[in-house]
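Could you help me review a protein record that somebody else here produced? What it holds is a sequence and that sequence's fold in token form. I need someone to confirm that the token line plausibly describes how this chain folds. Take the sequence as given and treat only the tokens as open to question. This is what I was given:
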Amino acid sequence: MLPEFLDIYRNAADRDDLIRKSLSIEGIYFPGYYSIAYDGEGKIAERHASEGAPHIIKRRYLQDMSRTGIKTAIITSETEFSECISSKLCGAVPGAAGSVLQGKYTALRESRISGISPTI
């Protein structure tokens, strides 16, 4: 999904063009292109797609993440993780896509980077 999005991103005229063209990517969801109706108990009763968004959003699965060629790196010593990690797909459009990976991280011990940097 990310390579498809990046191809569109590189050729988009502006943010609206990017989102409109990205609607063709299977599995992508832009909340602003859907209206939600709730019943009296506050449960979702209906969801309506608009402006070319697919009515059914099909979930996509990645069988082997190591084969994607996509790498990430934390490149600042100021980065902190406090019991929670989250990876977000399509972060180039804030608020446009949901998180694809969330989890809880519990460190076995706390160490200063200066103390462990020789072993990294």
Observations:
- The first strand starts at residue 34 and ends at 38.
- The mean pLDDT is 74.
- Residues 24 and 53 are 8 Å apart (CA to CA).
- Residues 2-11 form the longest helix (10 residues).
